[in-house]
Amino acid sequence: MRGIKAVRKMIEFERKERYGFEDLLQIMKILRAPDGCMWDREQDHHTIRRNFIEETYEAVEAIDSEDSELLREELGDVLLQVVFHAEIESEKGVFDIGDVADGVCKKLIYRHPHIFGDTQVSSTGEILENWDHLKQAEKHQQTAADTLDSVARSLPALIRADKVLSKAAKAGFDWGSVDGALDKVYEELQELKDAVRDQTNPAEELGDLLLAAAGVARFIGCDPEECTVRSCEKFISRFRQVELLAEGKPLGEMTLNELTALWQKAKQ
Asked: Best label site of 84, 141, 169, 203, fewest CB within 10 Å?
């Protein structure tokens, strides 16, 4: 009848003061059920892929800010994404969250033979070396190039660059010192200048320069991704200071010399 909204049948679900992991699994099944949430039912791995990435970064930001309460919340959001993806596969009869847990448990046992086996180690270095060897065998990586190729292409570029170069270094392909890495940066910078001048694929040369810079980061003991993040924050802070020093004058109306002078003051 017109003017009368259909009354949705209440689902059977026990309200609690505190919920656990099994409750989360049940809620996800309810949301994905034929009479569940229309939005949740419409999702697949690809439509929520970005959500997974964003939630992970928000958890990382909570770690960086050392906010335990926020981290608790963000880890819950990451866990929701794991359960969501597992439920999608469960509906197809491929695997479920139990299979996910089974797989990671077996992986941890296999890669910790010094705990669950009779392997003897005397340092964390040996533990990591064993981990790499076991992972290569598990993933059927037969060559050093296979280990480089296994680094996920979906990683942020600087993180991927660091992992690729680190794996190459483990295979013996590395500079003897930071001086060699710095020389490579100068070399790539000159090639970029030439490419910009001659318009011969400067984008490729810029990529080579960034990769070389990531190589320097390894020698000075820093994460190139974190360095870039900190530099972005520093740039934003100085830019804000430039606006304050401009005393209300629109930056777009100022000359480059004026802006440069304000930037130098901001750096002080």
From this structure: 203
Residue length of the chain: 268
Residues 225 and 64: their CA atoms lie apart, in Å, by 13
* Residues 210 and 172 reside in one and the same domain: yes
Nearest-angstrom CA–CA distance, 124 and 108: 16
3 state SS for 84-139: HHHHHHHHCCCCCHHHHHHHHHHHHHHCCHHHHCCCCCCCHHHHHHHHHHHHHHHC
Q: What is the pLDDT of residues 218-268, one digit of tens each?
A: 999 999 999 999 999 999 999 999 999 999 999 999 999 999 999 999 998
Residue 132's closest CA among 152, 120, 150, 116? 150
- Same domain for 268 and 233, yes or no, is yes
Burial 238-265 (b: 16+ CB within 10 A, else e): beebbeeeeeeeeeeeeeeeeeeebeee
The pLDDT tens digits for 116-175 are: 999 999 999 999 989 888 989 988 999 999 999 999 998 899 999 999 999 999 889 999
- Residue 218 sits in a domain whose CATH number is 1.10.287.1080
> Residue 67 belongs to what domain range?
21-96
Looking at the structure, tell me whether residues 27 and 84 fall in a common domain: yes
Is 79 contained in some domain? yes
pTM of the model: 0.74
| Same domain flag for 240 and 200 | no
